[in-house]
Amino acid sequence: MTTMPRRWRGEPSTAREVAHAISRSRREFLREATGAVATGTLLYPYPLSALAMPRARKAVVVTFGGGARDDETFAPDGQDNIPHMLAELAPRSTFFTQVINRGILGHYVATASLATGVYETFNNFAKVSPDHPTVFEYFRKDLKRPSTDAWVIAPSNGFNRIGESEYRGYGPGFGAGVILPKRLLAAALANGGEGNFNHLLRDNYESSSFSPVVGGNDVELKTLSDIFQLSVADFVAHAKSLASPDELSVYIARQLMHRLAPSLLWITLHDIDVAHSGAFSLYLDGIRRSDRLCAELWRMIQAEPEYAGKTTMFILPDFGRDSDASAGGNGFQHHRTGDPTSRTTWMMALGAGVRENTIVDRPIESTDLVPTLGSLLGFSPSLAQGKPLPEVL
Amino acid sequence: MLPPQLSAENFHRYPPKARQLAIENVGLLRRLPLGFVPFLLKEIILYDWKFPAEQHELNGQIAYLKGLPDERRQAEMARFAKLQLAAQLEAFDWVNSPGQFLELLSAHLWATHQTDEFREASEQYVHKFYAAFERPALPVPRLGIVVLGEGVGENRYSLFRKLRRNGVYFSNVNPANGLDAVVETVRTRAAKYPQAYAHWSIQGAAKIVAPGVTCVSYNELTRVRGALAEKMRAAYESPKFNPEVLRTVLAQVEPASLGMAGAGRDEKLDRFQLSLLTEGSGTQIYSTTFVQWAAREALRRAQPLTLFTQYAPRQKERPMNELLTETGRTVATDPEGSLIDGDMGAYYTWLNQQRLPGAEQSRFLVWFEGHGEAVAIGPHVKAGTSDASAVTLAELLREIA
To answer: Which residues contact residue B302 at a Cβ distance below 8 angstroms, ignoring those fewer than 6 apart?
Structure first.
């Protein structure tokens, strides 16, 4: 809820200054940690031929969710929490230090904005499709790709309509298949007579609750056998060995990549959002798990012949969380103030055609992702508001 | 309805003191824009249950606005007046349900990209008000004490990392009778500087009672939390459920409906404790979250002279595999995780204490219970230093006080 701040001591003077300070801190830290090169003096765009672009490129997008702050990641105090990103991924990446999200800071609407390239304005908790065409629709329609070539793996029921909009000329039939692993698991457990596990459907950490099942183009239990060639019993047995819903999402991603090798795969991690419960240690656990899972996804890409050498991976938080200095918030717990810390995040691009060990300081917007994917994969996201990022093209 | 249409009759459903305050100031309320006046009404409607410091600030805010020449008040309200509000908001009963109105306003501001403008306008207004607001001098510098780490044996977490930068890190504290020394300090201050709601004890487990001290405890609220959980469960199972509906349901919960009723109860404290559970996220589940949020709210609202918070081990978050295999069904605690929660909570308590008047003279002590680590912060200690000499907690408390 909107509140009046009580008092503002030691607040940075302007949003731009705060965003710049965050960017500078990330750049300096990364440079120290990885010896990366800043790109301030380099010219863009790079000549395409120099980067030896492979044909039939693929892209994997991972949202590092739901929202992590610099304090617990790229700031000096946070480095212990992201050893994999620092040691394994950052040296291989072009790292954007300043990604601004000017939209609504709710996870579903913000992720939808990332996926459409437009700051969507619908109610975060509404069971609606994005208002604008998604990246999946542009991709499939423009490139005439089958439905099996674009997939979303998302954390909860609230994301079940993220695969496609209802925009005229796009919409139903052009979107991505959406897999909600927790829902799949709950269905599998019920199917196996293992009782009611509705608590697994906890939909968002803001309310510590679960939502009733709603419609959408998400994939039902039949997926297990048809797509993954996996028995319900095997699926459940594997799930029982995993510690969190995000681990289940990565397990599903592995199955998808191995069986269908989609060209466009979008994975929304969400464990970090346990921060809303106010337990700082659980939030840190979520960050460490996400860090490990991002590295695991990267290794999966390298290990799968269909992906190795032709896949570009993007990792970015959907947004940050409130600053400790914002008197109107409660620090890491929420993302309600709209302060610069909660709006300023980062993005890591790595893989095919991307310069390694490179830092980009200039501010970009989270809506730039879709146009960049369009330029990479060869489709035209005509309604997206952002601009392609020449640094990764 | 718009603010110029307000009349005294509109406030007949307000509690007695709130009604009187609103009616006395209806002329002012009429002259404020719709993008602002519900914020004031949200405070006024709760006036009867506000702590003295809050009432003083609210009175001060009304006096500040009334004292401004018309032209200057209009200038201060200009950014709020320029907010583009939907007709649906104008039609809402913002007089009697200002809290719900603000929920809707918040959603509207986000959806129409006016949040940043609103935030800046609010900051500007608050700055100006506090610059003009005169407060009585404090009889004694504020003292915040945080005790954490119960149940932790060996610790590998880098404790007090953020607080050490602001004070002295003591690594050789004798833990014997440490808690007694803390309680005695609180008791002494409460006796020496008796004021309503000026000395607080907030506990993650059982209550610690002392004369003149306002006591809040997680365990004490077990029955209330249980009754609230039932209401929340009913809301979840409603076909209309979504998190916003849940918030509305929680905002309408009355203390009596959760068993907070009977002669001799402190109605202000009941309402405060209820708000911790209905407005705080995670306070119903984790005792560590409860303590941190309660400390934040006590500081923000009551502005105490003394605040003692003690963390206890919270319940363990069960991983997915345990939930699925139904192993570990006994509710276990997580002392190590709670230590980390408490460490961050202590930092936030210090930050919130520093937001209050008299911050430059405030004192703060955080202690790893049963162990030899502590950090002391105050005007006479050198920030960012450490001290390995043997010391007792009583000596530390005397030193910073």
So the answer is: B51, B52, B53, B54, B197, B198, B200, B214
